[in-house]
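Fold these two proteins, one after the other.
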Amino acid sequence: MAITRNNTVSNRILAAYFSKTWRRLPGLDGRVVYVATATPSTVTLIVQGTRNQKLTFSAGQRVIVVGGTFHFPPHTTVFL
């Protein structure tokens, strides 16, 4: 199991499952913002062409989705 800490932008995400510790804010022009309300807050990703991933964030961090592209702040990744 590999663990990395990074900042990522991806349009290869087929599905994203946010834990219950996220709040969804409506955005403009097809933008959606998710805000972590607790530490840790996780997102499990099904990514095209690679292993599934579980991302961990701290409270207050934001994930921005524009169209089909996800913009992630620094986080910890575990490849499942």
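Now the second one:
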Amino acid sequence: MRVKLFSLFTLVAMSFSAFAQDEATLLKYGTDKDACEQNLSIYTEFYKQKNYADAYKSWVYLFDNAPKRTKNIYIHGPKIIKGLIKTVTEETRKAALVDSLMMIYDQRNTYYPGSEARVVGYKGADMYKYKKGTTEGIQEAYSVLEEAFNLGGNTSSPRVLSTYFVASTKLLNAKVLTIEDLLNLFSDLSSVISYKEAKLSQDVFNANEKEALTKKEAKQLKRNEDEKDKLSDVKDNLEKALAPYATCEKLVEMYTRDFEINKEDVTWLKRSAKLLNKKECTDADIFFSISEALYNIDPSPSAAANMGIRSLKRQDYTKALEFYSYALDNEEDNLNKAQYAYRLAQTYGAMNKNHSAKSYALKAASYRYGWGEPYILIGDLYAKTSRKCGELQTEFLKRVGYWAAVDKYEYAVKIDPSVKGKAAERIVKYTAQMPSKTDIFTEGLIEVLTYKIDCWYTETVNVKVPE
């Protein structure tokens, strides 16, 4: 009986295996392999010629009958359909083609999963492009873009971020969404944009540090630089659109009004804290109330960091160190760790604990390559202590720290052009306070190239003789 039972199970297993193989073959070649290969050849050749009208019929055959023959069905399909849409004037036919375009994205995720966020993003952006003529069409696109954003998070493309926001502004004008809805979305999108900009800046910096790039690395560098530029445009457009609504005065008024009914809503608290932080409204009492409520409900690293901002504003440095240290110790993402280490450096700097401030600034720089802010901070530490380092000594020793400060500002700009404006102001200010030619001559350093500074820090700097 055992032998017979085993044989029965074996037959069933073999049957399922054969069925699976048959199904896989059908998905790849359809019922007629020769017809499949012939249509693949025909559509591919016309596609290469950008003759989308003649490519369409053979492409449709594969889409309907052999959906897993090649992933190119879903890569080429949107271009073919969009090419046809451009040539069609009859609205019913155009609407049918748009529906077909949406089906391509859905079927791609069915048969070639793994890039759902990106593909849903394509779908949402194209849906908005072709259906933005009606409020209903915009709402439909908005829902798909919302799904794409929720799936993609920090990996969302500039196109998704931009189209999602534009669709939202249209729905605001149509009175489907409220200004609060738009502000919430702005908070979410801004967080992702800031993260992506930091990540892309680091990747670009790392690539530029290499002596030579492979062809693949060079292409990736170009893609990263292009995406960074696009993100910058998206950010500027978001800021301009929200400028009338997102002033500190209006945000404080709105969040103060709504705090009591939302003080246990984690999502509302997170969005509100992010936006107040983004718009530099952290002096307001409501920011403190929101930060405290959020931390009590959800003591995450970001919530702790908000409490650190609150404590630093109130000059409660002990508490600020406690919150920022908690944020740093419990954060896993290096870009976020860089921000928390930088905040610790700022706190120690405010306490005049310069060794610790410099140490955490360097730690922040080690978490995020190509970031200039930590070196601006170190330059500020050198500048503010320059005269004290030479206290009761020569004028030269009181001023030599400005050499080290300017070196840090120049290095910050070298690795991170985004800090150029901030650094330039300091360079002008402290260049004027550097040792004079007379001071340098008196020290016997006119012909010397470098000088070693021994203060609370040690730096070897180039001797800068004024013209």
